[in-house]
Each structure stands twice: as C-alpha cells, then as structure tokens.
Design brief:
The chain is built from 14 helices and 4 strands. The chain is mainly alpha-helical. It folds into 2 domains: 265 residues, no CATH class; 88 residues, no CATH class. A hairpin with a 2-residue loop joins strand 2 and strand 3. Helix 1 packs across helix 14, helix 2 packs parallel to helix 4 and helix 4 packs across helix 13. It is globular, with a radius of gyration of 20 Å.
Length: 354
Amino acid sequence: MGDLYMLMEDEQLRRLALLLRNQEEPLSRSINSEPDRIKFLRECNDAYDTVITLLENSIQLRNKHEASRAEHGKKADIAKDMQDYVKYGLNLGMQCIQNCGMRVTIVEKMKTHFDELATELNTTDSRDMKDFASLAEEVGFYKNSMWEYVTKLRSPSARAQSKAYSDVLRLQGIDFGTLVTTHKNKLGYKDAFEFLEEDQKLEVYNSIIEESGRAKMPVIFTRKDIPWYKPGGIAALAMTAGIMAWDIFTAEHKLESALNSAVSALSAAVSYAVKVSVTSAVGSVGVKAGTIVLSAAGFVVGALVGILFAAATGAILGVILGTGGKVPQNLDDLKFYSATMPNGMALANQISHS
C-alpha cells in the first residue's frame, strides 16, 4: 500500500464515496443474520450519505461567504479553511479507515463539529474583529491537526517512524493503558483518563504521537477565560488522535497479519465470536472453538483495517478510545464477520490518475 494521495477536488471525493459504498454493500452477503445484515447495509449507506452531506454543506458555506468577500473577506477565508478541514477529514475517513461502521462514526462527529463552526461563522458580527481573529485561529488549529492525522495515520513512510518506539514498548511489556496513564500524569492531570474533558484526552493522545515521532502536532488552541472548544470538534479530533496512538502502539506487533491468519482459519464460518481480553496488553491472536481470541490492541487494529466488523464496531471503538484502552464487557454477546474491505487509499490513487 502506497502513501495517501490527498483528494481535494469535490468530484473526486464524491466518486471515492460512491466506489466505497458500491464495494461495501455486497459484503452483506457474508452476513447470515438478517438483523445484522440490515444494520450493516444501513451503516454503508449512512457513511456515504454523511460524507456527501458534509461535503455539500462545506461547499455551500464557502460559496456563500466567497460571494460576499468584498464586504467580509475574513469570513470567506475562514470558510475556506473550514472546507479544507472537512476535506482532510473526509480523506481520513475514506482512505485511512477500511470499516464503514467506524467511518460513519468519525464523519458524523465531524459533521456535528462543522455545523457548530458554521453557526458561529454565520452569526459572528463582522464589526467584532476579535471574534473573527479567535475563530480563524481555532479553525486553523483544526485544519492543521487534521492534516497531520490524515497524512501520518496509515501511510507506510509515516508508520515506519514509530516502529522503534513501538518496539521499545513491546520489549518493556508496557500496555496501552499504562502508556496513556504515563502521558496523562506527565501533563499533570489527576483524574482517570476516562473522566478527563475531551480537550484533555486530545492532549494526552497528542503527547503520545509527539513522543513517538509520528507527527508534529499543533499546540492546542486556547481562548482566555472562556471554554474554547466545540464538543463535536474535539470529539472528532480526540477519536482520530486515539486511533493514531493505537496504531503507534501496535506498529511493531504485526497484528494485521496475525488477524488475517486467524480469520482465514475460520473461513468456513459465516460468522464467529470474538473474545477480547479485558486488559490492553498486546498479546497474541488465537483461534479456538469458532472464536477469535485477541487483545484490545488486536480488536482496534482489526476494526481499523476492516478485518473484523459488526454493526456496533464504531461505538465499541469509541468506548475503548474514550477510556484509554478499556474494553466494554458486552462484546461476548456480539457476532463478528469478516470480508476483504475495499482499500480507500488504493481507490483514491486510481481516482487521482484517471
């Protein structure tokens, strides 16, 4: 798999969204449960619809403020940065995440955030230049952060930068929860990770990313004396940063190949159970009695690359990331399925050269 090719043309993004949906929908044939099949198809369509809606809304917002640039040039500049932020996020969702359930979770959070920012941009009084400067700085932070995440999350050249860091963690026996706690404490936060505010969780995950050498993250934007962040925006960035932190943690563990082998061993089964360790240790991937046994790290990797999927994948991953590596206790009640998910990075490369 080559490095990510950033698609910025509107029609290219529409085409990628359609190709993904058209290749993901037929995968429902491997699901032998009608309720699960319906849920999966709904997620495929929701992922497509949300991508298209978010793209179209960002186009409309930019066109609206570009038309009045002569009077409100600063608003037009902010709307342009918002559109870039959205396009970077759509590239991340469609190229770096090969699981439509996770994609719809990420893109829905982005849409919530975009709607919040758009409302603020549309209602900010053009006479108050301080508000404009503050909003422009905030949007710039989101845009620059998303650029780092999308270009460094799954590309081989970027992932290679954190293999040595991952190997040290593996040799020292450090699990993900311990890694998160170490960085939380280093930043001076006393509460357990799961009780931190979203901006604090983002700071912890960004600290891991920085220390690993994977990316140079922008300094988190702050506004004096008032809450600065939009809950939707920080939720989207915190989840994305958490995914990258897990990818860094597992970079030298070869979990993808182990999971592929485990799934192949169960190829005769239409569906199978997944037993996830309640710890965050990497551990091994195994198969027994129609069940794949793996660690939380293995589950996150499998969900990210589409080796494992269930209707609740995005929500499960959200819990794991939001708690710093804790696994929900109800996974044993779910059935998982496997198929070769479409490779959005490869499809984007084809689109860029057609």
